[in-house]
Design goal:
binds magnesium ion, alpha+beta, binds adenosine monophosphate
Length: 532
């Protein structure tokens, strides 16, 4: 095993070696080693990721592997460091934040030449820990581990998770900030990504009028992570910002497609590579609700609610544009990038919704009307997003083609298939559902206009509509059992979510199901705090 330290070797670091919290000026990072833990044990690791980056699973399972993944040992070439960044939190500039409990170990180069930074989260204090302990609890680490690998399997750009290691130490957390602090088991996740650079890494230099380092970081990012754009120049800076806008639009569109709510879209949690990063109080949509957020800190504002995510991504890109302004010294190129975001998200959002419904991607067709009409129907009654879309593809071809059926019998037949997605036990004839039935008939006509054959339409719908997602209560069940030492649910979910679009008929009864009623308001299942 040999690592590289490209980021550290290329860029200026903190001259101070004091590991106590301090402000770090004119530097991109501080060298700091992970704090060893007492009794590390490997709880889980990602075989798909290990295979992808060429790490032998036997190494991960070896005592050396576990020690490295726990932060107790370094291997050749590692120069561990915490990154310096700032950020806008809930709309306000927060100043210096930085990796308060994450430590980058170094870059692993795979056989294809791709570099992967390994980062331990929960590995002890750094100069950016401020008043906190640098540690992470098992519940949040398990959530990050499971969700990042499941997002990858869903085809959503994301940082990855190689391993989940129990530290053998306890961590004190006040989960609901109500004075009830308790000891919880600690854990460490080894996150892996081409880079963990965030919008906030640029913002901190702009806020401090340190244009020299701003430019150095931009040039480093372009050379190492956007090499196809060519050497830095006004034109390539513009192309770079534009690409960040496009990637961010694609990422958020994917979140909306699968029903993911990030929960804390602060600019320090926005990856410059357009990867989903920093899994905290995230959640998955059960009943479709654009106003839903799992994050208890956001219950007043709903700033980061499901339906706001595209708009917030845009707001965050505006902050990035402001930060990058000194490199451009004119607003037009940045404005063009932001305009690209707006048109990209509008286009890809509509295409995505058409694809979910199995309607042709033709803006002039009635498809747009069908999509818009559905948006008004979600409010009529609580409808499970995942099951609704998946069941649509199970409606038989004859429902579309028959000419003899009355509207009532069409609606009843639709109900036979899609009814399982409804949370309330209401009759299909309930008067309040009238707009939904209008929609059903409109949708049927839209599909009839399509020239795609029935089978390939259903198949392509099933490629964009996952059958299995990491429902909040499933994650919580895996946590409850893992805290008691039983890892079976964690492993079962891991394997289920590796193939979220596959039918997996033997898993259907257990996992292709609506959120149970007991989980509706249960902490961890529907409400999550930032305390992790
Ligand atoms: P987050 O809300 O997870 O994005 O974290 C915001 C900031 O708080 C980042 O700078 C984190 O590194 C820092 N932070 C969160 N939890 C801890 C902790 N337990 N110890 C030290 N820093 C933390
Ligand atoms: Mg963060």
């Amino acid at each position: 095993m040999k690592f590289e330290s490209r980021f550290v070797d290329a860029l200026p670091g903190d001259p101070s070696t004091d590991s106590r919290p301090h402000l770090v000026w004119k530097a991109m990072y501080s060298l700091v080693a992970p704090t060893p833990v007492r009794a590390p044990s490997l709880l889980a690791y990602s075989i798909p990721l290990a295979n992808e980056i060429g790490i032998d699973p036997r190494w991960i399972e070896s005592s050396e592997g576990v020690e490295v993944l726990a932060g107790n040992r370094l291997v050749e070439g590692m120069k561990p460091y915490a990154m310096c960044y700032g950020g806008h939190q809930f709309g306000n500039w927060a100043g210096q934040l930085g990796d308060g409990r994450a430590i980058n170990l170094g870059e692993w180069i795979d056989n294809a030449g791709q570099s992967w930074t390994w980062q331990l989260k929960g590995s002890g204090p750094t100069p950016y820990s401020r008043f906190a302990d640098g540690r992470a609890v098992l519940r949040s680490s398990l959530r990050e581990y499971l969700c990042s690998e499941s997002m990858h399997a869903l085809g959503v750009p994301t940082t990855r998770a190689l391993s989940l290691v129990a530290s053998g130490e306890s961590v004190v957390r006040d989960m609901f900030y109500d004075g009830n602090a308790k000891h919880e088991p600690g854990a460490i996740v080894c996150r892996v990504a081409p880079s963990f650079i965030r919008f906030g890494n640029f913002e901190i230099f702009a806020a401090r009028q340190d244009t020299e380092n701003l430019r150095a970081l931009a040039d480093y990012t372009m050379a190492n992570h956007f090499p196809h754009l060519g050497t830095p120049s006004p034109e390539t800076y513009e192309a770079w910002f534009r690409e960040v806008c496009i990637r961010t639009a694609a990422m958020v569109c994917d979140w909306m497609r699968v029903g993911f709510v990030h929960g804390v879209m602060n600019t320090d949690n926005m990856s410059i590579l357009g990867l989903t990063i920093d899994y905290g109080p995230y959640g998955w949509i059960d009943g479709f609700d654009t106003d839903w957020t799992p994050n208890t800190t956001d219950f007043e504002m709903h700033r980061y609610a499901f339906g706001n995510q595209p708009q917030i991504a845009q707001w965050n890109l505006v902050q990035l544009a402001n930060a990058l302004f000194p490199l451009f010294e004119q607003t037009e190129p940045l404005q063009r990038g932001l305009d690209t975001f707006v048109s990209e998200i509008a286009n890809s959002y509509l295409s995505m919704q058409l694809a979910k419904l199995g309607l042709p991607d033709d803006r002039k067709s009635s498809g747009r009307n069908v999509v818009e009409a559905l948006e008004n129907c979600w409010r009529l009654t609580e409808i499970d997003m995942t099951i609704f879309y998946r069941q649509l593809a199970r409606i038989p071809e004859t429902w579309y083609t028959s000419t003899a059926s009355s509207e009532t019998s069409l609606v009843h037949e639709f109900w036979d298939h899609v009814g399982p997605a409804f949370y309330d036990s209401i009759e299909p004839d309930a008067p309040g559902l009238r707009p939904l039935w209008d929609w059903v008939l409109q949708y049927r006509l839209g599909v009839r206009e399509s020239t795609t054959d029935y089978r390939s339409r259903a198949e392509s719908m099933n490629r964009v509509n996952p059958k299995y997602v990491l429902r909040n209560y499933l994650a919580q069940q895996a946590i409850d059992r893992a805290e008691q030492g039983d890892l079976k649910p964690l492993h079962e979910l891991t394997s289920l979510l590796q193939n979220p679009y596959e039918e997996q008929p033997d898993q259907e009864a257990k996992f292709y199901a609506k959120r149970p009623e007991w989980a509706r308001h249960k902490p961890g299942c529907s409400t999550l705090s930032c305390s992790s």
